[in-house]
Amino acid sequence: MEYLQQDQPEGVPPLELTGERTLPDVPEENYWYQRHVAVYEWIAERIAGLRVVDLASGEGYGSELLARRAADVIGVDANPEAFEHARAKYTREGLRFERGLVEDFDTERDAVVFLQTIEHIHEPGKLLDAIAGIAPVAYISTPNRLTLAGPDAEKSENPWHLREYDVGQYRELLGPHFASVEILGLFHARKLRVHELAIKAGWDRFHSATRLTKPFYDRFIPAIAARDFRLSPDDLEKALDFIAICRR
User: Fold this and answer.
1) Comparing C-alpha atoms, which of 26, 7, 8, 30 is closest to residue 17?
2) What is the pTM of this model?
């Protein structure tokens, strides 16, 4: 089934949801979009007044969120459709977009933001060296293989992911390239935590037996917000995603 963004500004062509990146304005994708927004908002509180690059900026919504607090933000993405869409849609002062490979960006910045993309990279070590060379701090996230794919799988079925990491593997990947690495986990909160508990109590069997699945999730998924996620340093093996704060 094809999913396109809804209700885009005049002159901004909607992007198609392919699975390579998440998108706003697609109700069926809202869980994944808000999962990303929660992390961008957390980072935005920590980069106020800084010069920031958002590598693999995709549709551009994350760069725009960062630009609300940063001194200026450059969003970098190689995809031509995403680049043109972002440049047309997000025109906040202090925000601009560049089309290019993340591996080629070499402008010094105060902070690098690189979310949910290291698992797509053929030579992650080389890129991490480059990131450490352009900014004193980098925020780098990736999904937790254990919760995305399961403990017995090497990776999920996402065709865009070359490798996925558990927390130990993620530390091993990042450690050689930075002086310090702090890792936080992203977890469900509020109504998503209640939903988790309901599933453990048998909700899946109930909604399928009573034919409530579609009407319930047609309302539940669009209602998910960034505040339905939380970050914590505890129980990282159970985290949805890892967010690493890397300092050189």
Assistant:
1) 26
2) 0.95
CA distance 32 to 224: 10
134/113 Cα distance (integer angstroms): 12
Residue of 58, 14, 25, 17 lying closest to 40 (CA atoms): 58
Cβ pair 119, 162 in contact under 8 A? yes
Contact 26, 3 (CB under 8 A): yes
- Cα separation, 50 vs 27, in Å, equals 33
- Which DSSP string corresponds to 157-207? S-TT-S--B-HHHHHHHHGGG-SEEEEEEEEE-HHHHHHHHHHHTTHHHHH
Pick the CATH number of 27-187+230-247 from 3.10.20.30, 3.40.50.2000, 3.40.50.150, 3.50.80.10: 3.40.50.150
DSSP string, 93-137: TTEEEEES-GGG-----SEEEE-S-GGG-SSHHHHHHHHHHH-SE
170-217 tens-digit pLDDT: 999 999 999 999 999 999 999 999 999 999 999 988 888 888 999 999
